[in-house]
Amino acid sequence: MKKKVFRFKTLKQFSEQARLLSFVGRGGGDGVWVGLKASGPARSRQRFSLALSRLVLKKMLEVKRDEDLIKAKLTKLGVIEFLKLELVLAEELPKGFICLVVFDIPEKFSALRNLVRWFLKENCFFPLQKSVWISPFDMTEILKRLFKIWEIEKWVRVYVICEDGIPKGCGVNREWKEIIS
């Protein structure tokens, strides 16, 4: 088999797996069984079946069969992978707003700190400082869920902020001097 054909087939398999993960993740989220049924021509049913079995082998999905319906739910690993897919599809924030991630992970967990930095860099974040990162994409809810699964939410905060301070028309009508006094 030629390399290009192999790459294309591999890419199709990954896209089918991503579609399945996304469908189950949006349909039920954490720990909810979602009904799946292969449809269409034999070739697409075969791709569906192959993708399903690969996700089960990777321990991202649990599957059970009820008569002619297949039910699937995400495992913890599957939820993490689903959230990573959601990060890729995150919408850009309106002009002037940014997603801010601030973390203060203890020194004894320095490997974890480096992992968080690497993860943020891989997902379109830019460092302002070593533990302050920004992105133009709205990833707040996804990151909060992901950090909760990783059990590091006590050390990490995620915000959407306005680059110019408090935006006009957001309910704060006083000047800064009035707020201090």
Automatic annotation (TrEMBL):
Annotated keywords: Antiviral defense, Endonuclease, Hydrolase, Magnesium, Metal-binding, Nuclease
One Pfam family from the record: PaaX_M
MF terms in GO: RNA endonuclease activity
Protein name: Transcriptional repressor PaaX-like central Cas2-like domain-containing protein
GO biological process, one term: maintenance of CRISPR repeat elements
Organism for this UniProt entry: Candidatus Uhrbacteria bacterium GW2011_GWF2_44_350
Statement: the UniProt record of this protein carries the keyword Cytoplasm: no
Cross-referenced InterPro entries: CRISPR_associated_Cas2, PaaX-like_central
Keyword tRNA-binding in annotation: no
Domain Transcriptional repressor PaaX-like central Cas2-like: 99-158
